[in-house]
Design a protein that fits this description.
The structure is a single chain. By secondary structure, the chain is mainly alpha-helical. Helices cover 72% and strands 0% of the residues. The protein has 15 helices and no strands. It is globular.
Length: 341
């Protein structure tokens, strides 16, 4: 589904173009004015696919402006509202599967903020986590791991293991360890994060839910599929209650249930979940989103496992075949998807 660009975003874009047309010789002043104009826009939720067309336009402005800021010697670290906007753009690039662009922007932002704000500043750490998330999303968990570890170490050394930011950083690292196949280390970290999250934040807090999702992923990796399935079903109930029936968080939780059911050879139950998920993923995120494509591929796999080959071939023709996102079909419970990070 195509969602319109927010009129406030379109106006800001037009204002920025006008600034550069009217004052091309006063680059530093124009850069500051453009930076402040973007910072003044209302904050849009980058996790919501309905905002992605707006963020596409915002990202184009940000990419151009960051180049001019560097040329003019104007910092991207001021004002605070502009830093917040850049972080949201990096979230959008991760969520909308534009990780390559996210890596390039995050590298620029992180480098600038490290020099101007310091490596341990909260926003620098947040930008570093966005860089790691985008590296992870483009299939480079080995490059992401030391960044996640650095953020986790900084957060725990500054605030302690039980601080919300430290717990969220632990979620990131736990997901990355699972992606790297280090399931035992991931299990130990994720189990500890769930325990701390429940004690400090409560069982229904987003970070605790995310840690539980990561724990389910590490259990899956260790071959404890029935225990993982129980957790995934709990997570799905939480997601429906807190995020809504058709949020990406809820849909991804259902996808994990379908993957685990297939692994347990309950092919009919897996098929039923994927058949229900497919049109919902396409409606929410679009036909080209990986969630849609992965669900389609899983549905074909379910039907073939059931011996329903004609149906499988008929479904297979609907959307181009898309490979499995990870060796077991895709457990991507990474903390950058958390709204409060």
């Amino acid at each position: 589904m195509t969602h319109p660009v927010d009129p406030a975003v379109a106006r800001a874009h037009a204002d920025i173009l006008d600034l550069f047309r009217r004052h091309p010789a006063r680059l530093d002043e124009v850069c500051r004015a453009a930076r402040d104009r973007l910072a003044a826009m209302p904050a849009h939720d980058p996790h919501d696919p309905r905002t992605w067309n707006s963020y596409k336009l915002i990202t184009a402005d940000v990419q151009t402006l960051l180049g001019y800021l560097r040329e003019a010697g104007v910092p991207s670290s001021e004002p605070e509202h502009f830093r917040s906007l850049l972080i949201r753009v990096l979230y959008y690039l991760y969520e909308s599967e534009k990780a390559k662009t996210g890596v390039l922007l995050a590298e620029l932002v992180t480098s600038d903020w490290e020099a101007r704000l310091g490596e341990s500043h909260a926003d620098t750490l947040n930008a570093t986590a966005r860089l790691a998330a985008c590296l992870y999303a483009q299939g480079e968990p080995k490059r992401a791991r030391p960044l996640f570890e650095r953020v986790h170490q900084q957060q725990t050394s500054q605030f302690g293991d039980d601080d919300p930011a430290a717990l969220l950083a632990a979620c990131n690292l736990g997901a990355c360890l699972t992606e790297l196949g280090d399931h035992r280390a991931a299990f130990l970290l994720n189990e500890d994060t769930v325990r701390r999250g429940e004690q400090q934040l409560g069982k229904d807090h987003e970070t605790t839910i995310l840690a539980t999702e990561n724990l389910a992923g590490s259990l899956f990796g260790l071959g404890r599929h029935r225990t993982a399935l129980t957790l995934y079903r709990d997570i799905h109930r939480w997601r429906r209650r807190t995020s809504g029936e058709d949020s990406l968080l809820t849909l991804n939780a259902e996808a994990s249930i379908a993957i685990t059911l297939h692994k347990l050879e309950d092919y009919e139950a897996a098929r039923a979940v994927n058949a229900d998920l497919l049109p919902r993923f396409e409606r929410v995120a679009g036909k080209d989103h990986s969630g849609t494509k992965h669900t389609h591929a899983r549905l074909v796999k379910n039907l073939r496992a059931l011996g329903r080959y004609a149906e499988a071939e008929e479904v297979h023709g609907g959307i181009p075949k898309y490979g499995s996102p990870t060796p077991e079909g895709g457990h991507r419970a990474l903390a950058p998807r958390h709204r409060g990070a």
